[in-house]
């Protein structure tokens, strides 16, 4: 072991007999431990929130979405579908029409996001984990169309799946009409459909009604046009990789985005918030580590004779500085190791048993999500090393200078 660390360890254990300096050192260790534990836990919670949001997106959003660069709709041709299908990694292509519409059920009405999908939608199996009642089938045995509605729409319209007599009415303004009387039924296209299933993910998806593509096409008068193409990637291919290849083949007439790009703003907000919290907790650890500064300063005063003796034996100022830097490192790293152990333990308990609830229920999780990433623990360790060097350098330098003065 290095001589400076041998002496520092001896000082660390021997000074515990001194009450005041010992108390300050223990306060510094406790402060670093608590700050480190908090950073590990909080960063893991942010990782869990990011992971949870990705799971939510995956439950509803497609792996890759193709939309027109200009306008809301575009004509889908066999040649266009052939180009997209030719991209390696494309497993399924779902044609989609999506727009706002008025939904009525009995005496209740509300604005919904109406999403028309073709038969490939059910083969994607995305809403399976979010289904809370009924079925995801958009067609009955006799070809009767059904709608899959969100929990928010069901609550807003007080829909009962057991009521087979009351249909769900969908209204959409007619195009090409000269009438200005929007209170008249003549100004709207109308269709009726029976609710067949209810899903719940979280509030951002609470206004969706999913219906068969031909029904929505006729209601919205898209005449074969589509809002988007949703692509399911094959196993072994990443969404970004497939999206880039589709974009390269389709050119600038279409915007191609993977799932993360579709939700980039929310993911970016989580990362920015995580960064700011990391900086804040780093300052808290710095404040706690200030006690190391005072502890080393008083230790330097107490050990003046020892330092002078070391100089007399041939020690250099560099060795003295290293001794006190090592002393600060022992105090800080002891607290950091304890903090990391407790932080990891708390995260493991939360992941295993979910002691802390979110206070709300989603289809995916009910407790606060936590995800340990070892890079965060490494980052926390680097922060503590930097803070330790910052608060230990001045006392170590003063100890070296005071020892030289004492010898003189």
Automatic annotation (TrEMBL):
A cellular-component GO term for this protein: plasma membrane protein complex
Keywords: Cell membrane, Lipoprotein, Membrane, Transmembrane, Transmembrane helix
Residues spanning the membrane: 20-46, 275-301, 329-353, 373-394
Compartment(s) where it occurs, according to its Swiss-Prot or TrEMBL record: Cell membrane
Keyword Transmembrane helix attached: yes
Mitochondrion found in the keyword field: no
Domain of life assignment: Bacteria
Membrane topology per record: Multi-pass membrane protein
MacB-like periplasmic core domain: residues covered: 27-248
UniProt xrefs under InterPro entries: ABC3_permease_C, Lipoprotein-release_system, MacB_PCD
Biological processes per GO annotation: lipoprotein localization to outer membrane
Domain ABC3 transporter permease C-terminal, residue spans: 281-399
Similarity section: Belongs to the ABC-4 integral membrane protein family. LolC/E subfamily.
Descriptive protein name: Lipoprotein-releasing system permease protein
Native organism: Dyadobacter koreensis
